[in-house]
Amino acid sequence: MISQQLLYAIAGIGLFTIGLRATLLHQQLLPRLLSLNVCGAGVFLTFIAIAYQGPDAVADPVPHALVLTGIVVAVSALAMAVALGRRLRMLDDE
Amino acid sequence: MIDLVAILLIFVGLFFFLSGSIGLLRLPDLFTRLHALAKADNVGLACVAVGVVLLEASLLASLKILLIWLLIMAASSVSSHLIARDALRREQADD
Amino acid sequence: MIDLLWLMVDALLVTLLLILGWITCASTDIKRGITLFTAFGLLLALIWARLRAPDLALAEAVIGAGISGALLLRAINDHKPLGSSTPQRSAWMTWSINLMALALFCVMSWSMWLTLDQVDSTRLSQLVLSQLDDSGVSNPVTAVLLNFRAYDTLLELAVVLTAVLAILALSPMRSAFQPAGVLLTGMLRWLVPVLIVSAGYLLWVGAHAPGGAFQAGAMLAAAMILLHQGGYHSGSGLNLMLLRVLLVIGIALFVGIGLVMMLLNQSFLDYSPGWAGLLILVIETAATVSIAAALTLAFVGGRPDGWEPVTDSSNPSNSAEFNS
Question: CA dist C183 to A83, C189, C219, C224, Å?
Answer without folding.
Answer: 31, 10, 22, 18
